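Deliverable D2.4 — example input (structure tokens):
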């Protein structure tokens, strides 16, 4: 079963928080995303049912193998799109961040792969 944009945003946030602090709880996600704790709780329930996260007895949230894979994919798309917007289009960092967060969910796999090839080639040429 596929998840919606909000689910991908939750997975990406869990991944980022895990990298930053090593420990993720619902309140951390709510604070990071500016969502209410009940909204996050519902989101976590859905992600748990889909097998993307596990919730530990101490309240810690961990990505499963499939959750980690999906989170890394979304985060990679986000970073690449943001980099493209800033370095190739001259978009300011705040706008690039906001726009990348939207585009990462709707970009086709074909377009993403072409963009990745383009950016990889650009990086090689500047090294």
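Example output (designed residues):
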């Amino acid at each position: 079963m596929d998840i919606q944009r909000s689910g991908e945003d939750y997975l990406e946030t869990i991944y980022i928080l895990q990298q930053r602090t090593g420990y993720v709880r619902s309140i951390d996600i709510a604070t990071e995303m500016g969502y209410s704790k009940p909204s996050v709780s519902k989101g976590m329930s859905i992600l748990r049912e889909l097998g993307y996260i596990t919730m530990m007895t101490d309240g810690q949230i961990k990505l499963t193998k499939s959750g980690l894979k999906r989170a890394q994919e979304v985060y990679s798309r986000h970073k690449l799109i943001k980099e493209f917007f800033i370095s190739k289009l001259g978009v300011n960092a705040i706008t690039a961040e906001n726009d990348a967060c939207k585009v990462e969910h709707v970009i086709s796999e074909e377009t993403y792969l072409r963009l990745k090839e383009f950016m990889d080639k650009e990086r090689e040429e500047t090294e």
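The chain has a mean pLDDT of 94.
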